[in-house]
Design brief:
By secondary structure, this protein is an alpha+beta fold. The chain has one domain (4-365). The protein has helices at residues 53-57, 162-166, 200-211, 220-232, 251-257, 264-274, 302-309, 313-323, 350-365; strands at 4-10, 16-23, 28-36, 69-78, 83-93, 103-109, 120-127, 137-145, 155-156, 180-181, 190-194. Strands 1, 2, 3, 4, 5, 6, 7, 8, 9, 10 and 11 form an eleven-stranded antiparallel β-sheet that branches. Helix 4 packs across helix 6 and helix 7 (302-309) packs across helix 8 (313-323). The longest helix is centred in the C-terminal third of the chain and has 16 residues, at 350-365. The protein is globular and about 50 Å long.
């Protein structure tokens, strides 16, 4: 195994607040720092790496809907140095005004060496309002960039809110403030409809306009960073949970299953839009595994399939533990969950997790 976990910390509810993975062959550390935005300040309101929850979550911190919003910083760099922030991510389930099961996802380019510094991929996933057994999903992809953005090095641990350090607008701001629609996709939104009958070729055609940026030299660093981010999330090295802030009689058993972290929706929408080979997961592999050809990175989406499609109960409990809120606003200390103590959540992510399983199946397993 080339990569190993070298550090981790948790939030009040026992979910991961950060993970460091280290590759001894390259000396590179990859780090995710992630908070549910209802996490209070204090001992567990600072990641093991040293970033404060209020800096990561900014305007979403301790707001009226903060228990449905997760914000994170993904960074890379050499061990022993401050890591360079690569992406800033915001994921919100059940956004206000949309049907339950909908999502608002934003991924911002923070790489100071990137020609698209400050660019934001904004994806809104809206479910159909019917209670039918099968649902229709309308996805809107916007790629936005402020032309006046000046590349600024942002490092982890954060030295303050990203908006103050970088001069960019808070990622939680109104979408129009994040920038204009970029010309690489004709300055337009890309809208995609996913139904139970939508097949792979139809999805390929729908995503074709987004895929055009693979031929744009200015987007090369952004695309390379997406690949690196997805590889970080591909459950190759198992996340080792320290067992902190868990409840119930089987804390050790629960900690063994908590390998999942709260940034998978950003990975799924990035993967299907920009990493073509990941849509070929069910194709036969007759030769060696090769990047860019048959690397489907199943760890990015597999838990949604195992839980929501195959119905493996323990994985549904894991996803519920990670996404549903049991602690309220601000988050209570060690509140428990269905997985740990059988209690009901304050904010139930169940409909949103169904969206995840339906889209994972359509994006990566559909023939």
């Amino acid at each position: 195994m080339a990569t190993r976990q070298i550090a981790a910390s948790v939030q009040n509810d026992g979910n991961f607040a950060h993970i460091d993975q280290f590759n001894p062959q390259t000396g590179v550390v990859k780090r995710i720092e992630v908070f549910r935005c209802s996490q209070p300040t204090g001992r567990y309101g600072i990641t093991g790496a040293g970033s404060e929850v209020s800096d990561i979550c900014e305007s979403d911190h301790l707001g009226p809907r903060s228990n449905r919003v997760h914000r994170s910083i993904y960074s890379e760099g050499q061990r022993g140095s401050r890591l360079a922030a690569i992406f800033e991510i915001r994921e919100e389930f059940d956004p206000e005004g949309l049907p339950d099961g909908s999502w608002d996802i934003r991924v911002r380019d923070l790489d100071a060496s990137s020609s698209t510094f400050g660019q934001v991929l904004h994806v809104v996933i809206q479910t159909s309002r019917s209670g039918a057994a099968t649902r229709t999903y309308e996805l809107t992809y916007d790629l936005r960039r402020r032309q006046e953005a000046t590349a600024t090095l942002v490092t982890s641990p954060l030295e303050g809110p990203v908006s103050q350090v970088s001069g960019l607008v808070d990622l939680g701001a109104h979408p129009d403030l994040l920038g204009d629609l970029v010309s690489e996709v004709n300055g337009e939104s890309v809208q995609i409809i996913v139904e139970s009958s939508t097949n792979r070729s139809e999805l390929d055609h729908a995503f074709e306009r987004l895929g055009r940026i693979r031929n744009v030299a200015q987007q090369r660093t952004w695309l390379d960073n997406i690949e690196s981010y997805l590889r970080f999330g591909d459950l190759g090295p198992k996340s080792v949970h320290p067992g902190s802030n868990l409840r119930g009689d089987e804390q050790e058993l629960v900690s063994d299953y908590l390998v999942w972290r709260k940034y998978r929706f950003s990975m799924m929408v990035l993967a299907r839009g920009f990493v073509e080979e990941m849509s070929r997961a069910t194709d036969p592999v007759s030769g060696p595994l090769r990047r860019g050809e048959n690397d489907s990175k199943p760890g990015v989406y597999s838990l949604y399939i195992l839980g929501g499609v195959l119905g493996i109960g323990v994985y549904n409990l894991v996803l519920d533990k990670v996404y549903s809120d049991y602690g309220g606003i601000p988050m209570a200390h060690a509140p428990g969950s269905r997985m740990e103590t059988g209690i009901e959540p304050v904010a139930d992510a169940g409909p949103a997790l169904r969206t995840g399983s339906d889209l994972a199946q359509a994006f990566f397993l559909r023939e």
